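Hi, here's the filled form for the chain we discussed.

Project: internal
Contact: R.S.
Residues: 204
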Amino acid sequence: MTDALTIIKSRTSANNFDPTHVMTAAEIEELVSYAQETPTSFNQQNWRIVAVSSADRKAALKAVAYGQAKVSDAAVCFVLVGIKDGYKELGRLVKPLLEAGAIDQAAYDGWIGMANGMYAENTQLQHDEAIRSASMVAMTLMLAAQDKGLVSGAMIGFDPAGVAKEVGLGANELPVMLVSVGRAAPGNWPRKPRRAVSEQLKIV
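And the returned structure, exactly as it came back:
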């Protein structure tokens, strides 16, 4: 296992994947188990992942992702799905804390009430939160893949309606991005140059 800071500094976006590489269901599940540790607003966990790993389903997904080869060449292409009404699940998700005595009834009621007050009537915020959460999950997933000696490539180049239909998304779900994961093939670029910290940081 490599330390987290080295993983962050060594990860790069891959376009070339070994098409002979196969990941088992257990390996896929392990990566997603790390992604589950990603924080979300109110702990609503308003995301899910569809892992597309069979050759025929990857080919179908590739067709709605503008023919990008990394969709089908990678061992798996993850569809990161944002859930717009995830706040509705909070009662169930937070209840174990109440039952364990970690929070009292007043804290529980306040937690659920505040989330409902923030999201229930604000569809724009629901949409934005779904994208925020799924995007953060995608980064955790890619870092976990890097730690496992794999490479990853995130994509926003796809037909949203086509992807939604292909993986069977619900009315309150949206495809946020695709993330291909697998073993690297030759030809990937080195890490791209980064701006100077001084260009992107202001300390006040």
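Let me know if anything looks off before we file it.
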